[in-house]
Design brief:
- It is built from 3 helices and 24 strands.
- It is α/β, with parallel strands linked by helices and 202 residues long.
- The protein binds coenzyme A.
């Protein structure tokens, strides 16, 4: 962990990440945002994305606070910096869990043994990632969503608020699973799925 943390994105998601960062011991926090200036959560917005090279002084960690998975991926691929991994102290992380850089795990989330979570994922408030799950890079699991055991989720897929995914299910990359959906069959084609049981939105 380095002295300073720069959070890319000063919106609501950035505030939640700043709160977790403080609980992880960061005191010197700043934001980068192309569309905002001034302060956020009492911390300064120190520049825009174009300033990233100057801000990367060797003593700074960075984290991306952008909920959109593809935008998060494009930012991560643009910059070669030290990406922070932030875990809220109330999250439960089981034995053998692996978590990629840039990933944020929020309050009350549970990640059970031998799950693997990729880079720059968001495991949102009170989400449940059961044992042996495999989440690709840039996945977002929204608040209160639950993935049963041995679920696989492909890169950039977004699981909506309160969605449920049955155990042993595989969801391919670039999907959106609607809020409250129940996924009971494998999903092999990118797209938006909603309802219980979840069906593809045409
Ligand atoms: C599924 C989803 C992506 C669809 O968004 P959309 O393409 O903009 O769809 P719309 O809001 O235009 O709704 C289209 C229809 O689907 C229905 N619908 C939308 N979301 C639905 C959901 N989650 N479950 C069931 N039906 C849904 C709407 O009622 C509407 O029905 P109608 O045509 O009969 O009126 C979105 O509603 C959703 O659930 N996103 C997840 C949001 C989330 O969890 N965010 C987390 C932030 S931390």
């Amino acid at each position: 962990m380095r002295n300073r943390l720069i959070i890319i994105g000063a919106g609501g998601h950035g505030k939640v990440i700043a709160d977790i960062a403080m609980k992880n011991g960061y005191t010197n926090i700043g934001f980068v945002d192309d569309r905002a200036s001034g302060m956020c959560m009492g911390f300064p917005i120190v520049g825009i994305c174009a300033d990233m090279a100057a801000l990367n002084d060797g003593n700074t960690d960075f984290v991306i606070a952008v909920g959109n998975n593809r935008i998060r991926r494009s930012i991560a691929e643009r910059f070669d910096v030290s990406w922070a991994k932030l875990i809220h102290p109330s999250a439960q992380i089981g034995y053998g869990v692996t978590i990629g850089v840039g990933t944020v795990i929020m309050a009350g989330a549970v990640v059970n043994p031998d799950a693997s979570i990729g880079r720059h994922c968001i495991i949102n408030t009170a989400a449940v990632i059961e044992h042996d799950n495999m989440l690709g890079n840039y996945v977002h699991v929204s608040p209160n969503a639950a993935l049963g055991g041995t679920v696989a989720v492909g890169e950039c897929t977004h699981i909506g608020v309160g969605a449920a995914v049955r155990n042993n299910i595989s969801i391919c990359e670039d999907c959106v699973i609607g809020a409250g959906a129940a996924v009971v069959r494998n999903i092999t084609e990118a797209g938006t799925y909603m309802g219980a049981p979840a069906k593809k939105k045409e």
